[in-house]
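for the recovery benchmark. tokens below, seq after
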């Protein structure tokens, strides 16, 4: 049975994002789901050094890398849409380029007026999270709508 609930589900093709999608489908059966894959543009690499400045990637190379990443992102979102539909959601896909990734997710949540933004969490904590950042933390701290963070099964604490 279709639902009026609109979910934005962040999906990067990882087991963690698949688990989050499946849990969201179980919690919100029949909901409309926008499956979102966000990719970050390639940074232009340049660094001063003892031998002078290292030339940045030429524009053509950068464009080829960005095209390859964009193509992969589309393939990933298509897989997510297929998985969401198979899990009982009414899904469509969106691919967007934004940096940082959490910003793209928050922006898409606002754009589609999501009732809930769903993100997976790999459970990185402490130093690793501080150094690498966390997409789920960024979404939680910056979203203006409810966020459901679903922990990866591998990182669940053992039952007592």
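predicted aa per position
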């Amino acid at each position: 049975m279709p639902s009026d609930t609109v979910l934005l589900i962040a999906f990067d093709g990882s087991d963690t994002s698949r688990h989050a999608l499946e849990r969201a489908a179980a919690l919100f059966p029949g909901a409309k789901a926008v499956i979102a894959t966000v990719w970050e543009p390639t940074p232009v690499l340049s660094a001063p050094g003892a031998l002078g400045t290292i030339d940045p990637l030429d524009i053509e190379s950068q464009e080829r890398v960005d095209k390859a990443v964009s193509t992969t992102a589309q393939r990933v979102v298509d897989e997510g849409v297929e998985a969401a539909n198979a899990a009982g959601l009414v899904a469509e896909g969106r691919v967007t380029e934004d940096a940082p990734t959490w910003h793209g997710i928050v922006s898409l949540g606002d754009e589609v007026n999501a009732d809930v933004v769903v993100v997976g969490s790999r459970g990185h904590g402490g130093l690793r999270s501080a150094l690498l950042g966390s997409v789920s933390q960024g979404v939680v701290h910056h979203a203006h709508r409810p966020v459901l963070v679903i922990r990866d099964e591998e990182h669940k604490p053992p039952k007592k």
